[in-house]
Design brief:
The protein is mainly α and 295 residues long. It is built from 13 helices and three strands. α3 crosses α6 and α7 runs antiparallel to α13 (268-278).
Length: 295
């Protein structure tokens, strides 16, 4: 096993606890004062159990501390529908409910506004925006949708998006031969192979995500490059047997190797074909390949 593979596997095991720990979200309890008497308090109350469960699952890669936790919690509540469109968000109420300062609330709402989830206007205040205004390509929103009521739609949409952009990226990458990138892609395949033999799903998935992200970045198309984070998010939240990349198996590993070989040979058509095959190696292929829709 290469030094890179050993380092990555060790780091993956150490980071396995990267998700918020059992007590992390609970360190910021809801206030027990008379908030329950406020208008709309039931929405906060009903959301809490599900919110805590989703938060521990999805909050790992984003900000820690009060600010990061509040962004996660409010974002999940909006995306799940617990805080519906046009609902007013009163900073004072949020501060009391989550026991955080006005500064933390203000900064958290700014982050959510940048994601298109809320809007703040003079004389109107801050309100939840409709789904049509959300930045659905934001990695946080991808995660929140993937672990909420819209999980099936989110995973289908991500699969369709990957089917559209990744074969093209593989074709383009074959025309940008760089030895360092070629070596890195080969290293990822080696790591995946060794991780699969060890039953190390975490390391396999992280090497897989880096493989796909790197492939898009080397395609030589800056607009595609901006989508690499979306692909990484898709791999992290797929959560089910939708594509060959979701779980370690010989078929997907072989297709990764074929992509590397095609890139080394400068064969864009072969690289594109291998990527399409990679995205459809799972028996549930009908859930991956986009079918024509009636309009």
């Amino acid at each position: 096993m290469s030094t890179l593979a050993h380092t990555m596997m060790t780091a993956a095991r150490a980071a396995d606890s990267g998700l918020a720990g059992p007590g992390d979200l609970d360190r910021y309890p809801y206030a027990e004062a008379t908030v329950a008497d406020r208008v709309g308090a039931s929405a906060w109350d009903s959301a809490e159990p599900e919110l805590g469960r989703m938060g521990r699952r999805a909050a790992g890669s984003r900000g820690r501390g009060l600010h990061g936790q509040l962004v996660q919690q409010l974002g999940q509540m909006i995306v799940s529908g617990d805080l519906g469109a046009d609902r007013p968000l009163v900073p004072e109420e949020i501060g009391q409910r989550f026991e955080v300062s006005r500064t933390v609330v203000r900064e958290s709402l700014r982050v959510l506004e940048a994601k298109g989830l809320v809007s703040a206007r003079p004389n109107v205040g801050t309100r939840v925006r409709p789904v049509s205004d959300w930045n659905l390509l934001d990695p946080d929103i991808i995660e929140w949708r993937a672990f909420g009521p819209q999980r099936d739609d989110q995973r289908r949409e991500l699969s369709e998006l990957r089917w559209t952009i990744e074969p093209l990226a593989a074709r383009l990458a074959a025309g940008h031969g760089r030895d360092d990138v070629q070596q890195r892609l080969g290293d990822m395949v080696e790591i995946m192979s060794h991780a699969m033999g060890q039953g190390d799903v975490l390391t396999f998935s992280r090497a897989d995500a880096e493989f796909h992200s790197l492939l898009i970045q080397v395609a030589g198309n800056r607009m595609l490059e901006h989508l690499s984070g979306i692909v990484s998010a898709a791999l992290q939240v797929s959560g089910g047997p939708v594509t060959g990349c979701d779980r370690p198996n010989e078929a997907s590993l072989a297709q990764h190797g074929r992509i590397v070989d095609a890139l080394a040979a400068g064969d864009g058509a072969a690289a594109e074909a291998a990527m399409r095959q990679l995205l459809t190696v799972h028996p549930e292929v009908e859930r991956v390949v986009p079918a024509p829709r009636e309009h």
